[in-house]
UniProtKB/TrEMBL annotation:
This is Lipolytic enzyme, GDSL family. Belongs to the 'GDSL' lipolytic enzyme family. It comes from the Bacteria. SUPFAM superfamilies: SGNH hydrolase. It comes from Williamsoniiplasma somnilux. Keywords: Signal. Residues 1-19 form the signal peptide. One of its GO terms (molecular function) is hydrolase activity, acting on ester bonds. InterPro entries: GDSL, Lipoprotein_mollicutes-type_CS, SGNH_hydro_sf.
Length: 486
């Protein structure tokens, strides 16, 4: 007992001594690192392209996000990435003797006779060989990616916005309502005549596209819509990450700030999360192949929310105060997870499909709770200048409205096959054009798309985009800029 009392008294003396030392120490100032996020961005080349074309006092409108806002973004960044990679390998192509052109008619036979190439890969090898010959023959200098939509017969559909819906995404419709886009010409009313086009980061696939090596031009990168189809707020682990990991949500925010002289009277619409949820659901679907799938999901969630926070702070710390932030929709309602064919009795994967759908709903809720918790903290800290937009509630309301009293309306099936065709590349004016095609499903016409809520298995059609745009304008933007309405 005496020994115990001695130890306790010693601890007490130690604590007293420690307290004395602490009380004599100079108080430490806790630095708020949130206030420094985004301040190190080089803005020396930022353009002042603001223009007051509306009576709300909004000087510019930008979007960052994923395919729900993409309007030519994936096409633009794909063209840039492919072209810059082509420029890197071009010296190697130049070293291939011109004699290969004379072998054009013999290529197929040569490849057929090569035992070292597996038979299943020979068709691909033939296409690549013919492509190299065409590049040499036509003296190709550039590469361009085109994305189009066709009807079931392969005829290109007019009015397609080169994004992931059949007409204009919500972001473009909002831009029209704000006066930044002429609805007929789809160009801004600003004196510079710049389109409301895709803006992209200049570090695509890790290359510094602003360097003289790539013949940089501001016009190639500066835009208003930085949203990219497939973009995430967490790291993409599959091969598409080669491109998409350079355009994550914070990369988009940094590109916007780097390229534009942002103002407190600018408006930004940000939406993100759908592709992050797809990645989390894939981890769950493959849960039997790994022992730590739950930890993987938690890690991905934390990374996603951290990057969303960084994107918001990057904007807020660079004078962008008016931001409307949309969360992720309930992806369990998408045809990808909700198509009736997935749950038919004769479907051997019925039970797993049900489990995946339930998890999709669960993880959407978990993601959005973390999303809104972080948003509320940041918004309070920065004076409540932002507004949150609940896509879960909006989507639920839209689905009910779309199918109300109309049995012809379909809300659980897609009407278009995404990237259904990848035709042979064509060469025009020394430019290699690669066209990827979204195709309307067999048996459907362009007019039939109006009866489908969803465009493909994950993206809504134009009706939903217009509904969201009207809601954003009437119930959010007009409230965010109240003084200018008087």
């Amino acid at each position: 007992m005496k020994k115990l009392l001695y130890i306790l008294s010693s601890l007490g003396l130690t604590a007293t001594a420690a307290a004395t030392v602490v009380s004599c120490t100079v108080p430490q100032i806790k630095e708020d690192y949130d206030l420094k996020v985004g301040l190190g961005i080089d803005r020396s080349k930022a353009l002042d392209d603001s223009n007051l074309v509306n009576d709300l006092g909004i000087t510019n409108f930008y979007t960052i996000g994923d395919s729900l806002s993409d309007s030519g973004g994936i096409e633009t960044i794909g063209s840039l990435g492919l072209n810059e990679i082509f420029q890197l390998v071009r010296p190697l192509l130049d070293k291939i003797p011109d004699l290969i052109i004379m072998l054009e008619g013999l290529v197929d036979g040569i490849i057929d006779g090569m035992e070292q190439i597996p038979d299943q890969l020979k068709p691909i090898a033939k296409k690549l060989a013919h492509l190299v010959i065409k590049i040499k023959k036509e003296k190709v200098e550039n590469v361009k990616l085109n994305i189009q939509m066709t009807d079931a017969d392969g005829v290109e559909v007019a009015g397609y916005s080169h994004g992931f819906t059949n007409q204009k995404p919500a972001a473009v419709v909002v831009a029209e309502k704000l006066g930044f886009v002429d609805p007929s010409a789809e160009v801004t009313k600003a004196s510079n005549g710049k389109e409301f086009k895709a803006g992209v980061s200049t570090n695509v696939v890790g290359l510094d596209l602003e360097s003289e090596q790539y013949g940089s031009s501001k016009d190639k990168y500066n835009g208003n819509n930085y949203a990219i189809g497939g973009a995430t707020s967490s790291t993409v682990d599959n091969f598409t990450g080669i491109l998409l990991n350079s355009v994550q949500i914070n990369d988009q925010a940094m590109a916007l700030v780097k390229q534009h002289q942002t103002k407190s009277t600018d408006l930004v619409f940000m939406e993100i999360g759908g592709n992050d949820l797809f990645s989390l659901i894939d981890i769950f679907h493959n849960r039997n192949k790994t022992s730590n799938w739950e930890q993987q999901i938690e890690t991905k969630l934390d990374e996603a929310i951290g990057n969303i926070k960084a994107a918001l702070l990057t904007l807020l710390n660079n004078d962008v105060k008016k931001i409307i932030v949309a969360n992720a929709p309930d992806v369990s309602l998408l045809p990808l997870y909700n198509n009736p064919s997935l749950f038919e009795e004769d479907n051997p994967d019925k039970e797993e499909n049900l489990a995946v759908k339930e998890f999709a709903h669960y993880i959407t809720g978990k993601f959005n709770k973390k999303f809104f918790d972080q948003f509320d903290k940041i918004n309070k800290k920065y004076g409540n200048t932002m507004m949150s937009y609940d896509l879960v509630k909006k989507m639920d309301d839209m689905l009910k409205e779309f199918t109300k009293d109309n049995p012809k309306k379909i809300a659980d099936k897609p009407s278009v096959d995404l990237f259904a065709a990848f035709p042979d590349p064509k060469i025009t004016d020394k430019t290699l054009e690669i066209t990827m095609t979204h195709k309307i499903k067999d048996g459907l016409t362009v007019a039939d798309l109006d009866n489908y809520f969803f465009w493909d298995s994950i993206h809504p059609g134009s009706w939903a985009h217009t509904s969201v745009a009207n809601d954003l304008f009437d119930n959010y933007i007009l409230k965010m800029f109240p003084k200018q309405q008087q």
